[in-house]
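Researcher: Dear colleague, please comment on this protein.
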Amino acid sequence: MATFRDLFGRGDVSPAVFAGDATSWALETDLFKLPTVVAGRQVIADTVASFPLIAIDRETGKKVTPTPSICARPDPRVTSYATFGQIVNAMTRYGNAWVRTVARDAAGYPLAVEHVANSRIGYTFNDNGTAFTSISVDGRAVPLSEIKNIPMILEGGSPLGRSPLNEIRPALEQLASAMDFSASYYSTAALPPYALVSPTRLSEGKAADLMAAWSTARRENRPAVISGELSLETFTPTSAKDALVLEAITYLDATIARVLGLPPSILATQALSSLTYSTTTQELARWLVNLNATYLTRIELFWSDMMPRTRYAEFDTTNLTKLAAAEQLEYDADAIAAGILTIAEVRATRGLDPLDADTRII
């Protein structure tokens, strides 16, 4: 099957570079500058970072208050938004985010952690590649109990994850080539819409003067004077390549969104299926399902392992799908009428105490 590199030239696509080890390579920076990749990664990082991470009591199922510092502000030097944003960006780019414990409480549970950039990490594996035997930061060995990674795609028993973007590297290369071709097409490959034709050879200076005069007249929307034996010849531009490139860019943009777990509408890309969502709430609910399965759960499980067994970590995502006041009231009334929720349960979700036995609802 022909590729864009076959049809239109390779474009500016650089080879892969490796982070830490050949088993975990990151795409060359140029590919991460593709608009859809930049937008997709930033939407995911910003969304995850905007959710508060809370602790839940396993026995009661209620939020632990006050929120433990390991959840509220894992790294005291920066905001939780910065910490989780960096973690998610590392996961989408390298397939791994590294977190190092910097303080523990008297019981040995982490009080504070820091995200460590992948460029600072070095590691070695055991003989079969299923476990780390050493990890270093800036060339200095760190105890395995003090630093761990949050992996994305795991395969073959390796503890090192792979980025979903690395898995579709050929598609990213095709998109880079298509966009490079599209950007340079009209200056290198396309037919001009018209030409000034002279029966005799013109000097470069004379040709430039005529071109400037004609272009100025076009910009100012006034008639141009063609003197001597010059004539105007128009062409019907070839549009097949244009249409093919634009269609392919649209398809590849949607592919990137799908691999990142983003609904097409989030990145303003074209949906590749006929499935539609009639409301913003439905679309956000779909986005939340993908986000939870792909990113939130990985971080929650990692953080839960740093907490006592009686607790677990969970992102509070209610703000993403919060209904308008009228919609929430209608939902609550329907839930009570259907016997799904009681009045006391609905009031509890709003932070209200149960009604007294003598209180009447009109």
